[in-house]
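User: Could you check the structure of this?
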Amino acid sequence: MPITEVEGRRLKLSHLDRVLWPRTGTTKGEMLHYYATVAPVLLPYTVGRPVSFVRTPDGVAGQRFFQKRPPAGTPDWVTTADTLRKSGEFMSQVLVDDLPTLIWAGNLACVEIHTPQWLAADPGTADRLVIDLDPGPDRTVIDCCRVALLLRERLAEDGLTAWAKTSGSKGLHLYAALRDASPRAAGDYAKRVAQELERRHPDRVISRMTRADRTGRVFLDWSQNSAKKTTATAYTVRAQERPTVSVPLSWREVAEADDPAGLVFTIDDVPGRVAERGDLLAGLLDPAAAAPLPG
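Assistant: Sure, the predicted structure tokens are below.
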């Protein structure tokens, strides 16, 4: 079992040649290399936030599970935080605050990283608004792009600046930076905006959870603003057939998109893209970008 040192932490890496994505032959070692490469742009979106992992020990075609609690054998140097559960009990969760933690988690086949819209130090304050645009049957990510432009304009009416990224699966995520908002208020606002867009564009948009009504429309999932919900973080790999990534987009890319394949990025694509274009979501991290919810 190879041992490597990452920023002063000794890590035992195992089964680096294990294929996690059978369709492409992508190994765990290749995934770890990706995470190490993009860590400078990924970590700002996980620091201080309790994470949930999607683990696929035998690869994405095998068993997978959502892990919130720290895995067995978690090193004592891994930072954790206690989060309040719906039952009123506290639960410990990992904070991916540094590169050693990121690589340690990847070695456990924690393929996906999901975060809430609040920091562990202040769980009662939502510092981000998120709306997940999910294409229904007969719709694609290109339809999500068209709706995202409408949603961007609607948020701007209330003084909120929006940033977009691919989900790494089928749709898009839109974010805005918030100030002095609670998760409940953020969720209520996102729901109102989604319902408003559905009334304006009933043939294109749906805000209701009923799956049977989504055919031919884009579902605006406002519920991920709940204090109990999480969203795939920027630059996380996804447990899809291929090692796709949730990637920030420019608004020009969103506006000009005409081919779903052009908005699919894998771990082979992203490092070069970041080197050339930087982090297109970085504005979300700027405290000056945070705005209060209306009224």
